[in-house]
Each structure stands twice: as C-alpha cells, then as structure tokens.
Amino acid sequence: MFCEREPTDDGSGIQWNRAEKFYDPTEWMHHLIDHFLKPGTTARGHPGFEHFTFDHVLNGVIDAVGAEEGDEWQLIVQNNTVTTVEPERGDPDRMCEHCLRIVRSEDASCCADAETTPLWPA
Questions:
Q1: Counting runs of H as helices and runs of E as strands, what totals does the chain give?
Q2: Mean per-residue pLDDT over the chain, rounded
Q3: Spatial distance between the Cα atoms of 64 and 81, rounded to a whole number of angstroms
Q4: Number of structural domains found in the chain
C-alpha cells in the first residue's frame, strides 16, 4: 500500500508527491483523516505519534483526471467528510468558496458575501 500524499513544507496541508499514478485516492483520503488527522483518530497514543495534534478538520477540492479519456472527477472534502463528484455535461454546478457546498445556479450562494466557482472549468 503506497500513499502518494505528503505534508506541505509548512505543514498546513497535504499534497500529491508527484508519483506517476495515484491509486484509490478516495480510500486514501478516508484513511488519512480517520487514522491521523481528525479528533479521536486511531493513531492517537501509539508510538511515533507523540507530536501529532489529531485536531485537524479538512476542507478542499481535488480535480482528478484518469488515464482514460473522459475519466474526470472531483474529490471533495468538507469538514472531514469525503465525497466524489463526476462532471455533468451542460452548465456546470458551482461551489460556494466559503463552505464548499454545491449550488445549482451561477447567481445563487449559500453564504453571505461568498463567491461561487464552477465545479468544472468551461
């Protein structure tokens, strides 16, 4: 089992380590959150993890492209909950930049003064 995710230099995030391919990214994200990052993780109290804080809440979006044509999707993490979304053809759904919720219309937003961005580039 090889995880192609690593901490950023400043420790504020995780990033792809540029390995050739990244297999099972959704499962890996679940594993990292459940075992090392969120409160109450399974690694707490084990040797080698004395300096871990186990208090992280992850939020973010990863745009993914597979080897085959049309193999595109997004891995979305919102408050440590992992989901995947495949693009729909036609007008793209949008995402609130504040809370990462999906909104269905370009002029709709769920948070006051928050911008929305397309889930998929036009």
A1: 1, 8
A2: 81
A3: 18
A4: 2
